Amino acid sequence: MRGHSPKAIAAIAAATVLATALAGPAQAQFPREGVAGIENGVSTTFAGKWWIGFPEGEGIIVGAPVVSCEDPVALAAPSAGVLVYHSPTGAQVSFEVFEFSGRTTWMPESGESILAVWTGPDEFFSYRVDAMSGSALWDDPRVYRRCPDAG
């Protein structure tokens, strides 16, 4: 770099490394469409107890899970197209569930909807959908992993 001092070159290099390190996780490509073999829009597929955490991968720092299998979220499918979310704190939310564009939409009576993208039979990513823009928050997923049966 002609015309730049060694200090300036070092500062530019350090800024580039820092920018690359900070941008890495935000640029991670998380799944946007479910895997083949798992039907979308089927509420019974979600029934069970779930651990909730964050995606793992290169350049991603993963903290403690949001919910563990010791005190999991329970998802129930009382009827076709209906999913009920029972949190460990006792809160409960009902969702209408339907297929849309290779994923499952969870539509609450009010508030933000959620997109669920199956990555395997016992794991899916969830993405909130901004109520104002209608856009999925693709860069901020949660990962749901089915808890093993206690028996």
Structural features, described:
The protein is α+β, with helices and mostly antiparallel strands. The protein folds into two domains: 1-29; 43-146, Lipocalin (Beta Barrel). It is built from one helix and eight strands, in the order αββββββββ. It has one helix at 6-26, and strands at 48-53, 73-79, 82-86, 92-100, 103-108, 114-120, 123-128, 142-146. It has an eight-stranded antiparallel barrel.
Number of strands: 8
Helix content range of the residues, please?
10-25%
Low-pLDDT ranges: 4-26
Percent in strands: 25-35%
CATH class of the largest domain: Mainly Beta
User: Mind describing the biggest β-sheet?
Assistant: 8 strands, antiparallel, barrel
Overall geometry comes to globular
Q: The CATH topology of the largest domain is what? A: Lipocalin
Label the CATH architecture of the largest domain: Beta Barrel
- The helix/strand class is alpha+beta
Q: What is the helix/strand order? A: HEEEEEEEE
Q: Provide mean pLDDT, rounded.
A: 84
Count of DSSP-assigned helices: 1
Terminus-to-terminus distance: 66 Å
Largest sheet, spatial ordering of strands: 1-2-3-4-5-6-7-8
How many domains make up the 3D coordinates?
2
